[in-house]
Batch of 4 targets.
Target 1
Amino acid sequence: MAPYLDTVTSFADVPITDAGVDTLAFLKASEGVVGLFDHLGSTAFGVVQSDLKGNIAKVRARYDETPTLSNTLEKLVENEKGEKKRKATEGLLWLLRGLSFTCKALQNAQANASEELAAAFAKAYDVTLKGFHNFVVKGIFSVAMKACPYRADFFNKLKADPAGGPPASDEHVAECLNKWLIGLDGIVTRLQTFYKAGGHDKGF
C-alpha cells in the first residue's frame, strides 16, 4: 500500500470543463477529506467528519435521482433551483464551507513550518466557519482544535505506509499535499463564486 494521499482522489485530478466541476469525482475527493480527519487522531473532530459525510450524502442522493442533470456541480444546483427544498444545494454549500476550513488550515500549516496544527486550524476557523456558527457549535470547534495532534505526529501519519513498508519522504508528502490543496482551493473558490453570482446561497 501507499501513504494516505496516494490512496485517495486528489482534488487536482477532479475534471473541470466548461459545464462545471465533475460531481462524482468531486464527491470521491471529498470522501478523502473525511478520511484525512482520522489522521488528526482526535474524536473531537467527529463533528466535522459527520457534517462532511452528511453533506456528501445529500449531494450524492441528488445525483442518484437525476444523474444526467447533475453530472457537474453547477448543473446540479441550477436544476434544483426551482424546487421548494433544495437539499443538495444546501448540502453542497455547507460541504464547501467545511472543505474551505480544512483547506485553509492545511495551507496555514504548509506556509509556516513552525506553526502547530492547533494554531493553523484556529486561524482557518476564524475566516471560514466561525461566522456561520452559534455559541454552542463554536465551543465544540474550540475543543476540537485544541485537541489537534502535534504537527510532527500528523505528518508522520501522512507519510506512513499502512502495509508496514517504508514511509514516504517529506518531499513526496509535501508535493502531494500542495497539489491536493491547490486543486481544492480552486474548486472551492469557483463554486463559492458561482453560488454568490447566482444567488444560490440565499436562505442558507
Target 2
Amino acid sequence: MRYQTFGRHSGLRVSEYVLGTANFGSAPAAAGLEGSRAIFESFVGAGGTTIDVSNIYQDGEAETVLGDLLGRERDDYVVITKYTGSRSAQVRPGTTGNSRKTMIRSLEESLRRLRTDYVDVFMPHFPDGVTPLPEILAGFEDLIRAGKIRYGGVSNFPAWRVAGAAVRSELSGHRPLVGIQTEYSLAERSAERELLPMAQAHGLGVVLYSPLAGGLLTGKYRHGEQGRLSARAAADGTAGEGGEQRTAVLDAVLAVADEIGTGPVQVALAWLRQRAARAQTSMIPIVGPRTPAHLAGYLDALNVELDAHHYQLLDEVSAIRLGAPHEDVAGALAHGVDGDRSLLDDPLIPVI
C-alpha cells in the first residue's frame, strides 16, 4: 500500500485506503468481534494505517472494538472519528448537533471508548442546520491546543460552507481545515460539481465513502443478495438499481471485469484510484468490509490497472451533467472568450 499526505495543509501521512469500521461490533449484522480483529489485522498487514470511525457506528461499539485493537501501537495509526448524531432511544437537544458543548462531550466519550488521549482527525459527521462554522473552528482550535485532536475537518458539508470555513481559518491565523469527507463512486459523482474542485482549490484532503455505492457496484443485488441498498429500498418503497444510468454503469463495470478476468469490485476501485491519481489533492476511499474475504477483494484492487479505453468507457457511462454555471463557462471558453487557450499551460492549482 502506498501513502500520501492528507491535503496540502498537513504533513499527516495516510494510506491509500481508509479502513471503515461501521461494521465493527457484535450485532448479528456486524462483523463480530473475531471478524473485526481479523479484518483489522489483515488491513494492517497489508500496510494500512488510516482508520475511520464515528461515535454512532454500532451505537458506539465500533469505537470500543477499535480501541481494543489499537493497543500499544496506537501511535502507528491515523484515526478519524466523527460526532454530531446519537443512536440513543431518547435523544435530547443538548446531546446532539455540532455545538462546542456537544463537540467536547462527544470527543471525551470517543477518547474513552478508543482508549487513547487524542484522535488524529475530528469531524462533525453532518451539518446540524444551526451551529455556525466559526464556533466549530474555534472548538477545533481549543482541542488542538489541548492536544486532544491533531486536525479538524468536516463531513457531508456543502462546498460553499467549507470554502468559507477554509478562508476564515486562513485569515484568522487559526489551524486550517485539513480535509472533508463525502460520498463518491462510479455511481455517484455529484461531488464533481462543487466539492472536489473546492477541495482541490483550497488544498483539502478528501475521504471518499461508499466507493462501491452501497454494494451496487459489486453486482450482488442482481444475484438476490441483501445489503444496505435493499434495506433502503424496502424503507422508501423504491426498487431496482436506482435509475437507468446506474444500471448502465453496473453493466459497464461487469463487462470490463469479464473482459480482463477480474471482479466488479476491482474494476470499480481501480477506476476510483485512477481518478484520485489525476486529482490535485489527496483522495482516499474508505473500504468498509464486513468479512475478511471482502477486505481481500478490496486489497486485490490495488494490483489492478485498466486499459485507457476501459477508463474512457467508465468515465463516459457514469458522467453527470455539471449544470450551470459549469456548462455555460465551458461553452464560452470553447468559443474563445479567453483567447487562444492552446497557448496557455494548464494551471497547477485550480483558479478560485
Target 3
Amino acid sequence: MTPPATAAVALRGVSRTYGTGPAAVRAVDRVDLDFRRGTWTAVMGPSGSGKSTLLHCAAGLERVDAGQVLLGDTDIGTAGDAELTALRRERIGFVFQSFNLLGALTAEQNVALPLRLAGRRPSRSEVRAVLAAVGLADRARHRPRELSGGQQQRVAIARAMVTRPDVLFADEPTGALDSTTARTVLGLLRAVVDGGQTIVMVTHDPAAAAHADGVVFLRDGRVVDRLAGASARDVADRLVTLER
C-alpha cells in the first residue's frame, strides 16, 4: 500500500450504503485505495459498480458510512460542514460531465467564481492565465451558450484548476464530447498531470482510460483489479471479463 506521505487521497475501509433493510445497496464496500501525488488514475467498472459513488466520497461530496477518506493528512470524514465546504473550495477541484457552468457568467467569470467564493478578489491576469493554459485566452468574454461543448469543458477544467487544488476529480469528462474534442481534453489533462497535478477520473471509455497512468477496476463496490500503463485494448478486454 502506498505510504501516506505520497498519497494525495487515501481511502481506508470506506463503505457507502444507500437505503436500509432488505432494499439497502452497498455502492462502495470496504475499499482501501491510494491515489498517489502527481499521477492520473482512471476508475472503471460495469454500470452500477460504484465508481461514481467512490469518486464522490473521495472528493468529499458524499459522506461515507464507514472508514476514512484522507486528503493528505486531513480526515474528510471528521470535518464539520464549514470545514468540508472550505476543503472542497480550496483543496479539491471537480470537473462534471455536464460542465455545470453558470450561463449568465462569461468564461472568465465562471473561472473566477471559486476564488470569489473563497473571499478572494482575483486579478483579471490571474484568471486569464488559467484560461490561456487551456487554450481559451480568446474566449474569456464569451458565455457558455457561445462556446462549443469542448470549449465549455475546458472552461470547467480551468475553473477546477484555478485554486491549485491538491486533487482534481473528473466524472466522465469526455462523456458528452465527440472523439476529436475528447482527445483535446484528454491531452489537456495529461499536461496538467505532467505539471505535477493529481487527477482521479471516472470513465467508461477505454481510450480515455489509456491516457491515465493507471486504471482501477470496480465491481459490486469493490476493487477487483488494477492496470498500469495499459492500452485501450487491454482496458477494454478487462472490462469485458468484469461484465460477464
Target 4
Amino acid sequence: MQTARLLVGVLLLIAGIQPACSADKPLSFGVFPHLTARQTVETYSPLADALEKHLRRRVAIYTARDFKTFVERTRQGEYDILLTAPHLAWLARQDAGYRPLLKYAQPVRGLLVVKADSPFYAPDALRGRTIATPDPIAVVVLALHAELAANELSRNIDYQTTDSGTHLNAVMQVINGRADAAMLGLPSYRLMPPELRQQLRVLAETPPLSSLMYLTHPRLRDAEAQAVRKTLLSFATTPEGQAFMQRGGFGGFADVDGNELQAFRPYALQVQEMLRAPQ
C-alpha cells in the first residue's frame, strides 16, 4: 500500500489535485510543506495507513507547493485533518474554525547552520552575508530573525536572505556554496540524510517552540474528531508509530490548549501582514 500511496500521492501533491466529491470521498490529510512532496508521503504514509484502518475510510495525503498556498487552502477548509505549525494553527482556528487535537510533545527549535568547514563561528560573523531560508512565513524563520535581531542584526540591512522554498533547498544552497548560512527547523534537520547533516554545523538556535499541531475541520463531527485523536494516540504505541516518532524526533503526542495557541498570535499576525503585502 505504501508504494502505491507514494507514487499516486506525489503526483497529487505536485498537481494540487483534490479528490472528486463522492459518497466515499477520502478524508483529506493536509501536511504543511516543510518537506518535499516525496518526503511528506514517505514520512506520513504509516500514519495515514493507521487512520484508514481504524476509521475504515480512505485517507489522502496533501500538501502545497508553498506555505502561502497551504495557508489559503487551510483558510478555505480544504483539509479534514490538518497538521501545521502553531502560528498557522492559530490562523486555522480563527479563519476556518479548525479544532486542535494534539501536538508533537517534543518542542522544536529553529537552527541557523553553516558548512562544517565555514569560517563563521558566531551569528555576528554573518554581517553582510546571505542566508538561505525556507518559506519566509515558517515559524522557525520568524523566530530566527528575532534571534538575529537580538544580536543587533537586522534583515535586509545587516544580512540578506534568499527564499529557497523548503528546508532542504535552503540547506543545499549552503552546501553548494550559494549562501553563507541557512535557516531550518530541527525536525527537518533530523529527517535529512546523515551525509548531508555531516556537512553542516549549527551556528545558533532558537529557544524551544511548540511543535506541529493536529487539528480537524468543524465539518467532522465531535465523534469523528475524537476517533481521529484516539487513532493518533493508539498509533504512537505501535512499533510503526514508535519508529515514526523516533525518526522525526517528535517525542509522542501531547494535548494542546488555547493559551498555547494564543502565544503564537504575534507570529500569526506577522504572517497575515506578509500574505497581504504585494508580491
